[in-house]
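@channel sequence for tomorrow's demo:
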Amino acid sequence: MSKDWSHLDENRGRIALIQLCQVTKAYSNNVVALSNVSLTIRKGEFVFIVGPSGAGKTTMTRLVYREELPTSGSVIVNGEDVTELHPSEVPYLRRNIGVVFQDFKLLSDRNVYDNIAFALEVTSTPRREIRRRVPWAIEAVGLKGKEQAMPGELSGGEQQRTALARAIANKPVVLIADEPTGNLDPVTSWGIVRLLEEINRWGTTVVMATHAQSIVNSMQKRVVAVSGGRIIRDEERGVYAHEAQFVGIRRT
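structure tokens (generated this afternoon):
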């Protein structure tokens, strides 16, 4: 039985949904991806994680859905320390976490409908529920009429919308988006971000790692800046700024 770590964020009176508690992640090649990182993300937030390539953004997100384990420290998600989960419990954790990647990661031999259905099948969702949820997810991302299309027949934006539909089909508590606009043109990128914003309005917590400066600056959401495996800035209604000026600054 996992420990119950859920509590209210005393500073803001909202439930702390994700917590990284003094997390360090070092790899066997002596690369330290994260160094003593502590971060709290509250239920219903939309958070941008920004920073240069190799800063630790992707490692941070992979820890949340237990694709990685920290070398030390705790990762608390929805009241559970995911570092203590038995491997057989990880699929149950991931029922509550949707993930969207830069390169879509669609199954090339399955159409739009089946790509989304597959995400539900692997979590043992009943077939009747799959038949209900897949059309809902397709309509939610604006792909109605594309159910039978194969990934190779879709534009980049349509492929990412399919990936989004797959990520929300389980109606997750948390949606992790790792560079979701990295392979898209600016207009298509904004369409994806507006979808993420709409999903956030439903109550889903959204965490987006990104290099998209114009998007971050326009959205004015919470911004967590990472550099050298450390959080160097954490601002409500933040921007994508030159980070050198923020070294050593922490949010209070």
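heads up for whoever presents: The mean pLDDT is 88.
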